[in-house]
Amino acid sequence: QVQLVESGGGLVQAGASLRLSCAASASTSSLYRIAWFRQAPGKEREFVGALRVGSNIYYAESMRGRCTISSDNTKNMVYLQMNTLRPEDTAVYFCAAAVRSGLSATSLPASYDYWGRGTQVTVSS
Predict the structure, then answer these.
(1) Residue 4, by phi and psi: left (phi above 0), alpha (psi -120 to 50) or beta?
(2) Maximum Cα–Cα distance across the chain
(3) Distance in angstroms (rounded) separating the CA atoms of residues 55 and 118
(4) Residue 62: partners with Cβ closer than 8 Å, 6 or more residues away
C-alpha cells in the first residue's frame, strides 16, 4: 500500500497563489503516474493534472497556464503550484498515484490505485 498525504491548502483571495504538496510513503520514482484531482461539494471529482514520472506532464484545459506540477524524488514529494486562483477553484484537492500503466485514461479516477484524503482550498472573491 502507498499512503499519500496532501498539505498546503487554505483560504486565499482571488488572484492569489498556493502550492500544494503531496507526500508519498513510497519512492515517487517507483510510481508510474501521480495526479491531482479536485472535488467541490455536489460535484464530480475533476481532473487537474498529472505527472508521468520521468516523462511528460498533462494539464486539464481549465488549469492550463495557471498551474504547474513538479516533483522532488529525493523527498518523495509532488507539488501543485496554482496561480491566479478563482472562486471556482474552491474544492478539496486530492493527489493520486498509479503504480503502473493501465487501460483507463490519464484523467479518469479509475486509472489511479492510491488516494490521499485531500486538502481544502477556498478562494474568496
Answers:
(1) beta
(2) 40
(3) 25
(4) none
d(CA 36, CA 93): 7
Supply 56's cell numbers: 511528460
Q: Under a CB-based contact definition with an 8 Å cutoff, are residues 8 and 67 in contact? A: no
pLDDT tens digits, one per residue of 10-55: 999 999 999 999 999 988 888 999 999 999 999 999 999 999 888 8
Per-residue model confidence as pLDDT tens digits over 66-105: 999 999 989 999 999 999 999 999 999 999 999 988 768 8
Instruction: Quickly count: other Cβ atoms within 10 Å of residue 121's Cβ.
Output: 22
Parallel, antiparallel, or unpaired: how do β-strands 119-124 and 10-13 relate? Answer: parallel
